[in-house]
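Thread title: Can someone regenerate the structure for this chain?

I was given the following input by a collaborator and told the matching structure tokens would be attached. They weren't. Posting the sequence so someone can regenerate them.
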Amino acid sequence: MNIMGTNMVEDLVEVKIPNEDPGDKRPWQSFVVGAGMVHDNKFGKSVWMRLPADGETKVSRPVLAGQDENGKNIWENETRMVPNTELKAMMEAYKTRDRDSVLSDMDSKKPVAEASRSARPLLEKAARARQATR
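Best answer:
Regenerated them for you:
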């Protein structure tokens, strides 16, 4: 079988890597793999892919290069080669985040009932102002 003249185009999927630091507001890094390499897990709530552990993957991130004369932003891609073992750690960084209890976070916040009571007079005042303008 001769496939020299055949143009075989595989669908590609861009995988975005969230920033490890929540304070990092730069655009996320990403890499591209064939769609056939990405699979749903058995519960259908996430995906997985198999990459060779000894390989490398090109990771890119959009970087603001400046602005043109009209004030429109000019973006360029910053690329680097990352070992797949490091790529896996980057993708699974969410597992290392500190997960405080939701209940302990709620103690520091104002109770909802108390907040709604303090907002009620403002809402009533705004409603009266709307009725007065009609």
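The first strand starts at residue 12 and ends at 17.
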